[in-house]
């Protein structure tokens, strides 16, 4: 089930998302992924995957390959530990972000080595071109530094100098907004915006979005996001 707000916003309730419970991994899929297939939810602009993952303590994804995809991991609670075939190793904590450009091919493993469940968004974005040397990077983004505003966390645009680099015509933004306050975002004409409140309830154009609902938005005029409860917003803007 999806709810259309006006002509440019589609609400995707959390309960309508694809679902796979593997025991150690409880995953919700905003777009078609693995055994979940919905022809109406194949991609949104350059966004191909948005998975809402809960990874049990001391478990994780064993080494597996990727190619020709930009993979962004936004950790919401706990931490994820990364290891890849390039020799990169790193631990990304709640509120922080890691990016991987799969390029011509890379193998990686992602483990929750913590004693608590780790929750994260894993977002795949189609690169602007195929191939290229694979790479990985991570950066802390303290939630307090983005209180009351949206901050660019990962980007394929040179103007976003403080953001992690991806090789796609897209940017990832995050922000925290207190109940009763609002933030505005202006996506350009023809842009594809996908927004998820990781926590809390929000209102966009008079429509209520619960925590972990998806909002597929066509750019062209500003959107105002009002926090009904304290909220943490994650947004991708792509061609």
From TrEMBL:
Instruction: Please give the family membership noted in the entry.
Output: Belongs to the pirin family.
Signal peptide (UniProt feature, chain positions) = none
Q: Does the keyword Translocase apply?
A: no
This chain belongs to which protein, by name? Pirin
| Keyword annotations from UniProtKB, A to Z | Iron, Metal-binding
Q: Which organism is it from?
A: Sphingobium chungbukense
Q: How is the cofactor bound?
A: Binds 1 Fe cation per subunit.
Q: Which GO terms describe its molecular function?
A: metal ion binding
- Taxonomy, superkingdom: Bacteria
Where does the Quercetin 2,3-dioxygenase C-terminal cupin domain start and stop, copy by copy?
154-237
The upper taxonomy is: Bacteria, Pseudomonadati, Pseudomonadota, Alphaproteobacteria, Sphingomonadales
InterPro entries attached here?
A: Pirin (IPR012093), Pirin_N_dom (IPR003829), Quercetinase_C (IPR041602), RmlC-like_jellyroll (IPR014710), RmlC_Cupin_sf (IPR011051)
Residues annotated as domain Pirin N-terminal? 18-125
User: According to its UniProt record, which cofactors does this protein need?
Assistant: Fe cation
Q: Which residues bind Fe cation?
A: 64, 66, 108, 110
